[in-house]
Every structure is written in C-alpha cells, then in structure tokens.
Design goal:
The complex is a heterodimer of chains A (375) and B (310).
Chain A lengths: L1 H21 L20 E6 L9 H16 L3 E6 L6 H13 L4 E4 L5 H10 L4 E5 L8 E6 L1 H15 L4 E6 L4 H17 L4 E6 L6 H13 L4 E4 L5 H9 L2 E3 L13 E3 L1 E3 L1 H14 L6 E4 L6 E3 L8 H15 L10 E2 L5 E3 L7 H5 L8 E2 L6
Parallel strand pairs in A: 1-2, 1-3, 3-4, 4-5, 5-12, 6-7, 6-8, 7-16, 8-9, 9-10
Antiparallel strand pairs in A: 11-13, 14-15
Chain B lengths: L2 H30 L7 H19 L2 H25 L4 H19 L26 H5 L4 H19 L1 H11 L1 H6 L4 H27 L11 H11 L4 H23 L6 H19 L4 H4 L16
Helix pairs in contact in B: 1-6, 1-9, 1-10, 1-11, 2-3, 2-4, 2-9, 2-10, 3-4, 3-9, 6-7, 10-11, 10-12, 11-12
The chains are: A alpha/beta (375), B mainly alpha (310).
Chain lengths: 375, 310
C-alpha cells in the first residue's frame, strides 16, 4: 500500500509541478526566429532537472551553467527550466514535449533517466536541438554530453587519504550502476595512490536525492568507524552529519563548504557553463551538430571546488601535480595494475581499460568494504 | 557487530521512533473518540513543511515545532468538519486528506527543498540521567523533542485512562448514544479529539523536518503515517504500548543501514523494506480471527453520530 501511495503521490506532485512551471514561459513563445544564413538572432533554451534546482548538488550545478549562459548572452538568450521532473518515462516525456511545443530551440535534459524520453520527443520535433546528459543515445538532432568525473574523483581521493586518521573512509552511494561504480573506484584509487592501506565502506541509498536516507546512511558510516565521508548523492546531508561528528567530508557537484566549514575538504565538481555556452553559441551561429561530447579536466568541465582550511599546502601541491599528469595524458586514473575486491587482477600492469570496459564496470576495487549489489 | 554499534542502533532507533510515537499517540486519542483518521500521513507532511518553513524564516526550531502542531491541528479540523459535521465516510475523507496533504506540502515546500535549516533540535544530555550506564546514552542523550515525546506518552496515558475528560472521550468512542444521554457533547469531544490527533501528527512531521532528517523533500514522511496507524492497532489503543512499538519500529529503521555498514550481506532493497514488512506482519497477526474485539477497539470506531438516529 505504502509503495503505491508513494508512487501515486510523487506522480501527483510531479504533475502539479510540471503544470505549474509549464504555464510560465508562454507569453513570449514567438522568440528565436531563424534568419536566412542558418544562424539565429536569439535563442530560446530550456533545461530539465531531475531534482530541485536548489538541491545543493547535481541540479544546482546544471542551473549554475544555465545562469552563466544568461549572463554571457544577455538579450540574445531566453532560458527556462523545469525542476524535479520524475524519471518515470511518462512524466519526463510530457515535460520535454511541453517545452518543444512552446518553441524552445534547444532543450537540455540533465539526467540519465531522461534519455529515452528525450529521444522519443527528438524524433517528433526534428527542427529542435536536444542535448541529453550522461547517456549514450544520439540522433541527428540529439547530442549527448558528459565528462570524465573519475579524474576529479581521483584527485579528491588524495585529499581524503591525507585527512583520514584511521584509514577508514565511508561513502554514501546512490545506485549500483556502472557510472557510479566507476566514480567510487576512482575515488578510492586516488586515496590509495598516497596511502595504499586506506579502505572505504559504501552504503547504497537507491536514490540520487533523499536527504533523510542520506543522513541515516552517513550516520551509520560514522558509527561504523569511518572518519572521512564522501558521496555521489545530490544533497549536502552527508556533510551535515560529518561536521558535528568531527569527521572530514568530500562533497560532490558543487561547493557546499558553507554547510560544513570544518569538515569540508573539497568536492569534485561539474562546470557545465563551459559546455552550455559553447552549445548556445553554436545554435546562434547555425553550426550546431549532433555529437557525443565527453569532457575532462583539460577543458575544465570537471574540476575541484576550493579546498577547506584543513587541507595542507603539501596535499594541495600533490593534487596539482597529479592533475597536471592527467591533463598531459601521462597518467590515467584506471592504469593497471588494478585488483578487485577478491584480490584478482582485473587490469594488468601497463594496460588501461577500454572505454567500453569503463562504461560497464561492475566490480569494486581492492580495499572497498561492502558487497556491490547486483544492478 | 561491536557492542558500540549495537548501542548506536538503539540511540538512532529512539530518535527515529519518536516521529511514529507522536503520530500514533495522536491517532489513539482520535480513535478513542470513535473517529477513524486515515489522513495521518497528509497531516504529518503539512506539519513537517510548515515547521520547516517557519524555522527557515526565523531560525527557532521550537516555534517551528509549534507551527507544525497548529498546521496539523488545522488539517485535523478539516477532517472533523467533514466526518463529524457533514458525517462523510471517514475512510474516504481520510484518504482524501493524505492526497491533499501530500500535494499541499509539496507545493508549499518547493522553494526550500534540500536547503539546510538554519537551526535544528540538537541532542542535550540530561544531567545525572544521561550518566546511567547504557540506558542513559540511549534514552537521555537525545534532543528536546524526544524528551517531550516521553512526557506526552505518559500524559496521554494518564489523560485517557485516569481523568474524567478521558473517560468522556472513551465513552464517546464506545457508545456515543449513551455518552450523549448522560450529557457529554459527542460533537465537541470528537472535534477536539480529531484536532488533537492532527496536532500530534503535525508534531511528528515537524520532528522529521526539524530534528531527524532535518530537511524538507516532497513526501518526507515516506509512509510513516501509515505505520503509525498500524501501530495504533498493534498497541491496542494504549499510548504506552504505542510508544514501545514506535521505538521498536525506529530501531528496525536504524538497523537497516547499520547492517549494511558492518557488511551483513543482505540486499539493500530487502533492508529498506523491513519497517513496512514488519507493519504487515503486525497487521496479519492482529487481524486474525475475532481478535479485534478482544483488542478493545472503540466500539463506535468509524461510525458517524447523529442524535436523531438513536
């Protein structure tokens, strides 16, 4: 009964939200005229977020990108967004199609679960550009975009390893999917690069955004002895737990140091503005083409948030050095040898996993505590 | 599992159970008057978002909690107007209030989703009591609302079973005709009981958003209102047993992540299912055969009262 109610009520709330936001942008539905040369004078751009834009994490990072676009292009661009869109296919399709009907020129859909709905709407509206984040499907008018977050996770792991006293870290993890497994491994590998004995416990909340569950999971990690916490979930609840417990915290997605100033070490973050400004410019120039974009530390789409006061200059220098090595392609996060939890070599010395192997990673590396649930 | 970790399960369990205890005790008072309120979940949500919003504005969690109580009581008033005033079906009205509360709270809280509150209820160690070995750490190193919960449970028990207004309340729930005949106002008693239950539910919600979580997300209560209703039956309409059950459920909730943390190899979905599974198990055991009557359910529970129909 409860499950059904949850679902029902979520759908109701989502429907309400979609309805409420949908009526916002109608008065100016005639912008974005294309001129003869293929480019446009102005562009109407829309974003769809899976969680509230003030979640202090994933959606906040995307919304900062949207605001940067507004800042840069001024009158040339008109933006809107719909937040908290459910990843249930029906709800997402309605939200995306609603924007398409309102005449938006380009629509960014910022969650893996929006991939198929985006593709579905893209086929129906061939004159509109679609950009889907973190997926793998494209079409003539649909790109996908993402970045090598594992590089930033690796760097932040170095800060964590220098901060732990007892060598036990804890991570609040969302879903046991390859992307998250890869990022979790990258963080621990980074930590082990400076302290080979460091271990990490993982707890799954099965949600990207569920602050109460995140808090409960973080408390359990502290109770189990972890003294550095990190996360790939969206809210800063993990930091709120770390602060009073005297633990350290590596956040995710955006600079949340004000939530837990003493616990704050750093956070691997996304700088979506770099990509969004580029794509809006392409629409204005008439040069937009479908692509699969995968950014990294070099172009700045991923990076680290400012360091907390407790991070020593020595640690910062170490991180900067590795950052340069990664940028110069001297070194890759998943360079062998890498062992899995059972101690078996999964990436032999001198080898690096192929992109396909990275995208289907289904094992935790040695030093991880807790079993990876079947996904 | 180390002894220390076991201890933390109980510490977190008492806190996690407090929200259930508030809601269940409130529902007991409501049902003791013969009114079934299935809208607890909605009332908790409205209480939670109101408490959170008020606290966000002024940074005073106590004022937030009181606002949560008032918001819950207002929802209770709506329920009472319909089921006592207009004599509508109590089940349907309650269900409608769940959906209404869910939508309303989601709408009101849109702007503050995920925001950290400026102030929360933090644990206060009670002098002397908190130095009792083991029990002191579990029971007396909690936040102020947990202590308020202890007092409210004892107070509710005393009120229901040891006072004249409590006797009136029970007689209205057992036989409103008789109560009416001896001069007790059935309508007034039921209005007050439903509003009181709503206020408790609102407090339970505010506890979630101000102390336990402390944050706001749509559907923050995640079914706890339903667990509270099941607890009322589990507790056979007795506030003391409801408290016991509530804290027990809280421990089950606290257990889930800690089992994972110590590496017990059970699927995560099974773990998050535990409190709900437990609820179903309780309901199955309790609704077997003709137990309900023996369990002392108020005889007039769910029935509207109209004087001329005597």
């Amino acid at each position: 009964m409860t499950k059904t109610w949850r679902k029902l009520s979520f759908m109701l709330v989502a429907a309400l939200l979609v309805g409420a936001c949908g009526t916002g942008g109608e008065e100016s539905a005639d912008g974005g005229e294309t001129d003869g040369g293929g480019g446009q004078e102005t562009v109407k751009a829309a974003w769809i977020y899976p969680s509230p834009r003030n979640d202090g994490g994933w959606s906040t990072a995307h919304d900062q990108g949207r605001l940067a676009v507004e800042e840069k292009f001024g009158d040339q661009v008109e933006t809107t967004f719909i937040e908290s869109v459910s990843e249930e296919p029906g709800a997402a399709t309605r939200a995306i199609e609603g924007l398409a009907r309102k005449g938006y020129d380009i629509i960014f859909t910022a969650s893996f679960g929006f991939m198929d709905p985006t593709l579905e709407v893209a086929k129906k509206y061939p004159d509109i550009y679609f950009e889907h984040c973190s997926g793998f499907k494209t079409a003539d008018n649909m790109s996908n975009y993402f970045g090598a977050m594992e590089e930033a996770k690796y760097l932040s792991g170095i800060a964590a390893a220098d901060a732990t006293q007892n060598g036990l870290m804890g991570k609040v993890v969302s879903f046991p999917i390859p992307e998250i497994v890869r990022l979790t491994n990258a963080f621990l590998l980074g930590a082990q690069s400076v302290n080979p004995d460091v271990r990490m416990k993982t707890l799954f909340t099965n949600s990207f955004f569920d602050p109460p569950a995140e808090k409960a999971a973080a408390e359990s990690l502290i109770d189990a002895g972890a003294d550095v916490l990190t996360q790939d979930v969206d809210s800063p609840a993990t930091g709120q737990v770390a602060e009073p417990a005297g633990a350290k915290w590596v956040g995710y997605n955006s600079d949340a140091s004000e939530v837990a100033p003493d616990a704050w070490l750093t956070a691997p973050i996304w700088n979506w503005a770099i990509y969004y400004e580029d794509r809006i410019q392409a629409v204005l120039d008439g040069s937009w083409e479908s692509q699969s974009y995968y950014g990294d530390l070099s172009d700045g789409i991923v990076g680290l948030a400012p360091f907390g006061d407790s991070v020593s200059q020595e640690t910062i220098d170490k991180i900067k050095e590795v950052e340069e090595q990664i940028k110069n392609d001297e070194f890759d996060v998943f360079d062998g040898p890498i062992k899995d939890q059972a101690g078996e070599i999964v990436v032999p010395e001198g080898e690096t996993p192929t992109l396909e192997e990275l995208l289907s990673m289904d094992y935790f590396v040695e030093g991880m505590e807790g079993k990876l649930p079947a996904s | 599992m180390t002894p220390d970790l076991v201890l933390t399960i109980f510490i977190a369990g008492i806190a996690a159970g407090t929200t259930l205890v508030f809601a269940a005790v409130g529902e007991i008072i409501t049902e003791r008057s013969g009114v079934l309120n299935l809208g607890v979940e909605g009332m908790m949500l409205v209480g939670a978002v109101t408490g959170f919003l008020v606290n966000n504005q002024i940074g005073q969690p106590w004022i937030g909690a009181i606002a949560g109580v008032l918001a819950g009581a207002a929802m209770g008033l709506v329920h009472a107007v319909f089921v006592v005033g207009f004599k509508t079906n109590q089940v349907v009205t309650g269900l409608a209030l769940v959906i209404f509360g869910n939508g309303l709270s989601g709408y009101l809280g849109t702007s503050v989703v995920g925001e950290p509150p400026p102030a929360t209820f933090d644990p206060i160690a009670l002098p002397l009591l908190s130095s009792i070995p083991v029990l002191g750490r579990i029971l007396f190193n909690q936040d102020a609302l947990v202590y308020a919960g202890y007092i409210l449970v004892a107070g509710a028990w005393w009120f229901v079973f040891r006072t004249r207004p409590g006797l009136n309340l029970r007689s209205v729930g057992e036989s409103p005709e008789t109560a009416d005949a001896v001069g007790i106002s059935v309508v007034k008693t039921r209005y007050l009981a439903v509003m009181c239950g709503g206020g408790f539910a609102g407090l339970g919600g505010a506890y979630l958003s101000l102390a336990q979580a402390p944050s706001w997300v749509p559907n923050l209560t995640a079914g706890r209102g339903w667990i509270a209703i099941a607890l009322v039956i589990f507790a056979t309409w007795n506030p003391l047993r409801a408290a016991l059950g509530g804290y027990l459920f809280g421990c089950v909730e606290a257990l889930s992540f800690r089992l994972q943390a110590v590496g017990v190899d059970i699927p995560v979905f099974f773990v998050s299912m535990l409190p709900y599974l437990f609820t179903i198990a309780v309901l199955v055991v309790i609704s077997r055969g003709n137990l309900t009557r023996r369990l002392a359910a108020p005889a007039a529970l769910g029935n509207s009262f109209a004087r001329e129909e005597r």
